[in-house]
Design a protein that fits this description.
284 residues; alpha/beta; Rossmann fold; binds adenosine-5'-triphosphate; ABC_transporter-like_CS; ATP binding; membrane; transport; nucleotide-binding
Length: 284
């Protein structure tokens, strides 16, 4: 069963002169096992949208259900894992172990079951078990982010919801998180992430949801996204469009550097072949 939003609107400072409609009449459906990217400019309504998925916020009108249940129910809280942008704000225990164990213990799992889940989660995020006794606040930004992610994974969620999980990380840290999310998705968990980092995320996204001024302005596949004008584009797609506009007959709907290279070499070979055929045949 999916996450379903039906005609959802959310207001802040309702009935005051400062009233803001953060989401307006939004309809959205997210299936289990999907990898979804939520894109949009600052203030578009992205964070407001994801906070509806586990009952952190409630709609002022319309309806949100997760697997047919109210998102504020305890059952949903264990099915929807959340990781916020500033991992440090999410950590509050004395050791990494306690931090990751907090969710399972809070949901009533035994010490033994919790330990199994902690070990499974640190492995999933490629953290060394030796780190479990460390103070979370002595870790690097990338490690803190992985601890926050492990804390969410220890509940074995059906939906993992993230707010800009690779922002501010170094290239190695970014790769660790992206590889982990790919693995998590391959194991059947839906991954739903807000991101401005199209370069890192684009090859992973199966569906893109673009939020603009509180409304869903576009939703569809990467291919449909690239075919739609005036969207923020990943650098590789911008380059292919630029080549096309300069008369190089490439297919601009590519998602990775490897695909771009293959496409450019294909076009180069075709042009060379055509030119060779135009040359007058030399007499022997
Ligand atoms: N607690 C709040 N009180 C009042 N207004 C708020 C509150 N939270 C968000 N807003 C406003 O609601 C609108 C949507 O905000 P939201 O944080 O959902 O956008 P966003 O797309 O996540 O932005 P960003 O990329 O900057 O995080 C913005 O105009 C924002 O200023």
């Amino acid at each position: 069963m999916p996450i379903i939003l039906e005609n959802v609107s959310v207001f802040y400072s309702r009935n005051t002169p400062l009233e803001i409609a953060a989401l307006k009449d939004v309809n959205l459906r997210i299936e289990k096992g999907e990898f979804v990217g939520i894109l949009g400019e600052k203030g578009a309504g992205k964070s407001t949208l994801i906070k509806l998925f586990n009952g952190l916020l409630h709609p002022d009108s319309g309806k949100v259900t997760v697997d047919g249940l109210d998102p504020s129910s305890k059952k949903v809280k264990s099915r929807v894992g959340m990781v916020f942008q500033q991992a440090a704000d999410q950590l509050f225990c004395r050791t990494v172990y306690e931090e990751i164990a907090f969710g399972p213990l809070n949901f009533g799992y035994s010490r033994k079951e919790t330990e199994e889940r902690v070990f499974e989660a640190v492995e999933a995020v490629s953290l060394d078990r030796a780190m479990l006794s460390r103070d979370p606040f002595s870790l690097s930004g990338g490690e803190m982010q992985r601890v926050a992610l492990a804390g969410a994974l220890a509940l074995r969620p059906d939906y993992l919801v993230l707010d800009e999980p690779i922002t501010g990380l170094d290239p190695a840290g970014k790769k660790e998180i992206l590889d982990t999310l790919k693995k998590v998705k391959d194991q059947g968990t839906a991954v739903i992430t807000i991101t401005h980092n199209l370069k890192g995320f684009f090859p992973l996204l199966e569906r893109i949801v673009l939020v603009r001024e509180g409304r869903i302005n576009f939703q569809g596949s990467r291919k449909e996204y690239l075919e739609t004008e005036n969207m923020p584009l990943p650098p590789v797609a911008s380059m292919m469009r630029e080549l096309k506009s300069r008369g190089v007959p490439v297919n601009p709907a590519v998602f990775t550097v490897e695909e771009a290279l293959e496409e450019i070499l294909r076009v180069k070979a075709a042009i060379e072949k055509e030119e060779a055929e135009k040359q007058p045949k030399k007499r022997v």
